[in-house]
Design brief:
single chain, 62% helix, rod-shaped
Length: 72
């Protein structure tokens, strides 16, 4: 057993090594490209913005209540 320095590390190296071994099956990368769903991303951003707005309103309300409590 060596240090592993001769092992293929990238998908291209693995494909070339498979071809070199004569492995003719279809090569599949372990981590395929991400499927970007823009609709889902926009919905998530809208939810986060709504939550942030609600948090800001609650913070302002709390600060106003603290200020009123101090003035009494």
């Amino acid at each position: 057993m060596g240090s592993g320095s001769t092992r293929p590390n990238t998908a291209d190296d693995k494909m070339i090594a498979a071809i070199g071994r004569g492995d003719n099956s279809e090569f599949r990368d372990r981590s395929p490209g991400k499927n970007i769903d823009t609709k889902l991303i926009k919905e998530k951003e809208a939810r986060e913005k709504k939550i942030q707005d609600k948090t800001d309103r609650l913070r302002a309300l709390r600060l106003a209540a603290e200020k009123e409590a101090k003035s009494k």
